[in-house]
UniProtKB/TrEMBL annotation:
Residues 95-145 form a coiled coil. This is APETALA1-like MADS-box PTAP1-2. SUPFAM superfamilies: SRF-like. Residues 88-178 form the K-box domain. Pfam families: K-box (PF01486), SRF-TF (PF00319). GO terms for biological process: floral meristem determinacy; positive regulation of transcription by RNA polymerase II; regulation of transcription by RNA polymerase II. Keywords: Coiled coil, DNA-binding, Nucleus, Transcription, Transcription regulation. It is found in: Nucleus. It comes from Populus trichocarpa. Gene3D superfamilies: Transcription factor, MADS-box.
């Protein structure tokens, strides 16, 4: 018949309790030794009986070193927990501070818009009015500065456009002047090519009228007497030569 499962509760019989303590203590010390050897672990075991008697086990008899290590570790753990608690408290304070600041800014913004003014005193309203006047002065100064910069930039562009326009007008006038000079024919080349002009007049058939010489480059008739006399003097030697040749 196998062993049944032992119910974990305090043994009321003192003799049975003492026997069970002795057996379990021996097994516990044996297990501590096994785990230290098999796993190369530092083990410290402290047991006090119900009468206050001490039973202990430590790896390589280094109970003090293990206890000091335990103290350092537990102290670091306590400090970490305390730091976390302090940090949590600091974050709570920071959250409350920022929340109050946001609420104040929102209330000031509503006051600047002319809202929620009923709860403000006369002095607070005067301070608010002074702040708004100061802000308006800064805004107007900034606006005037930007307008002055814009006007200066437009004036500079206007001067540049005016200079460019004057240059274009000058170029147009020079081009028109050159076009007029090229459009007028040079009829005074007859004086430089006299023999050619005489040959042209002598080659005309008899009885045909002589071509009209338009000295001015215009197709209108020249009525002044001075122009007819000048033309007669110019053609007189040519006609004399022509008639003399026929008489010979």
């Amino acid at each position: 018949m196998g062993r049944g499962r032992v119910q974990l509760k305090r043994i009321e019989n003192k003799i049975n309790r003492q026997v069970t303590f002795s057996k379990r203590r021996t097994g516990l010390l044996k297990k501590a030794n096994e785990i230290s050897v098999l796993c190369d672990a530092e083990v410290a075991l402290i047991v006090f009986s119900h009468k206050g008697k001490l039973f202990e086990y430590s790896t390589d008899d280094s109970m003090e070193k293990i206890l000091e290590r335990y103290e350092r570790y537990s102290y670091a753990e306590r400090q970490l927990v305390a730091t976390d608690l302090d940090s949590q408290g600091n974050w709570t304070l920071e959250y409350n501070r920022l929340k109050a600041k946001v609420e104040l800014l929102q209330r000031n913004h509503r006051n600047y818009l002319g809202e929620d003014l009923d709860s403000m005193s006369l002095k607070e309203l005067q301070n608010l009015e002074q702040q708004i006047d100061t802000a308006l002065k800064h805004i107007r100064a900034r606006k005037n500065h930007l307008m002055s910069q814009s006007i200066s930039e437009l004036q500079r562009k206007e001067k540049a456009i005016q200079v460019q326009n004057n240059m274009l007008v000058k170029q147009i006038k020079e081009k028109e002047k050159n076009d007029k000079a090229l459009a007028q024919p040079a009829f005074w080349d007859l004086q430089d090519h006299g023999p050619n002009a005489s040959s042209f007049l002598l080659s005309q058939p008899a009885g045909l009228p002589l071509p009209c010489l338009n000295i001015g480059g215009s197709h209108q008739e020249e009525a002044p007497e001075a122009r007819r006399n000048e033309l007669g003097h110019t053609l007189e030697p040519i006609y004399s030569f022509h008639l003399g040749g026929y008489g010979a």
